[in-house]
Fold this protein.
Amino acid sequence: MQFLKILFWCLLAFLAAIFTIGNWTNVQVKLWGGLIAEVNLPLLLLVVFLLGLLPTMLYYHTIRWRLRQRLATAQNAVDMLRGTSPVIVPRLSPDGEPAFTATPAEFHAAVQMAPAAQMAPAAPMPPAAVPTAVPPGCA
């Protein structure tokens, strides 16, 4: 599979090189105030492509980061309701890397907060309170 990915990227680079060689012409771009910039066509296309790609990638990574934070919060809430030991989830920076702010001593103290034997046992849910999936229109 790795070979196919490398082959795909090499083919794409080859096609881009052929396109660049075949279209190496200067294009006049009219700017504000009567300024005219002469830019190579492949460079202009690359800049326009990146202007469209970068905001989309920033939006995508921001949404992923927010969803990871919400998932970690929900998982901790479920673990607390079940009565299991607390899970320490590090905060994530926007690029997805953990951002540890606690010292190792603080981290170990938080992990050893309360042994499971000292915690009150969680009451089992009665069968009528268990959520069930009901298809729309069948209620």
Observations:
- The beta strands are 26-30, 36-40.
- The chain has a mean pLDDT of 79.
- The CA atoms of residues 91 and 114 lie 22 Å apart.
